[in-house]
Amino acid sequence: MNSITHDPVAPLRREWQRHTPAQRISRWLVWLVCVAAVVWAIRSIDIIPEFLADAPEQMGDMLVRMWPPDLSHYYPEVHNALIETLHIATLGTVFCFVLAVPLALLAARNICTIRPLNALAQLGLVASRSVNSLVWALLFVAIFGPGAAAGVFAIAFRSVGFVGKLLAEALEEANPGPREALRAAGAPWGAEMLKGVWPQVQPAFWGIALFRWDINVRESAVLGLVGAGGIGLVLDDAINFFQWERVSTVLLAILVVVLLAEIVVNRIRTRLI
Amino acid sequence: MTAAPRAAAPASGTVLQIKGLVKEYAAGKPVLKGIDVAVPAEGITAIIGPSGTGKSTLIRCINRLVEPTSGSITLHGAELTGLRGRELRLARRRIGMVFQEYNLVERLTVMENVLSGRLGYVPLWRAWLRKYPEEDIQRAFMLLDAVGLPEHATRRADALSGGQRQRVGIARALMQRPEILLADEPTSSLDPRTAVEVLELLTRLTAAEGVPVIINIHNVDLAKRFARRIIGMSGGSVIFDGPPEELEQHHLRAIYGGEDWL
What sections of the protein cross the membrane (chain A) (predicted)? Predict the structure, then answer.
């Protein structure tokens, strides 16, 4: 009779909470650590207030000096350096695949079933990625002397880690079914790879190659700063001699090339996939 | 044709002899508990049984996609267990296989999928350059005609329907000129009508080529309709082995358990 005041299912009601109290505390702790890290970082970089205050003024001043760009400076010096940059990026990408494909095959756990070899290949890939391309360039300038050869090797060694990792992931994602079918037909290992695996990773392979070439065009533009050839050399000279209208020419040239590379890569990629 | 000399069959009319086959994925927990089966040299032998009872494992032990723990499997009297490397490859190319999920190479053409049944025979450079022997190409065309896909040779496998893909799978397996064909749930991903059509095709083509078939199948009615011999498995053991006419309700109850579903 007192069905309104008395709720018969009340004892059966269950409370739902998204997080347990322990989870809630740990989530707060994560936030606290994040905030502390940012505060610590800001305190440690030692911003000099005066420099910060006149930064807009300095920037405006630089832009005025850069304008108008000295376009007559473009040919032949900047042009030739630009072409050299493209060559460094292209050769570096091609050479990187020579190293990255075997490493990726060793790193992919469905291809190479020997665990220590997987780990070794992973280590090689991580090592390649952990060194910045400018540092690789410094090393190869020390070995080959200044010039484009050092640039090519720097680009290749920096790219191996990136390309090898993505390639190994693509290999591991390949459907094992077709391989199993070919193995069941008595196909040797090489044929299994060639006809069962390669067709599956082919789109990823070309996608990675184009993407890395695109990145390498940008990376090789700065290699000249450490003497490894390309347009960075011209840029470095211009900055050192305070020829700002030449600096802006170089920057514009880089921008145009990067834009063109982006457009070309996108065109090809849509065709491929 | 394969010119390799074959060992004489031990018992007349038996192509494949399985004795005491045991498979343990985890030690002490056998999935197959001592299977003894003799597969006749012609017609379809169907293996029925509930999911997880080891039908697939049994079929995969034959071509060593799964490594048996113990026991013996002989094809035309030649032992298959214990083969390694090149010998295993040569044995595998005598055994065709058709899969539930077709396992075609999606981004290759139908023709190349069929020709890949010859990968155990042709040297790698031929496969790489797609320079398969003329004889193989003609046989591939013939098989595509036989499975009813003559005009699909240059289409990519991922453009085909399920039934069409399984037809390509059958053509690929027959491309090996196998001495026996294994079919692991070949119709489980297909609609009922396509399933019957694919089984009819499989029966007709293997009979024409004189290839005996071992087929794993969930559908008991289809098994009875197409098989000459039925093997009922339950809990990793064979509990029925005989012609379809002898398979009765109490056998099915023993194989699948329960009775409400009958």
Answer: 28-45, 86-108, 134-157, 247-265
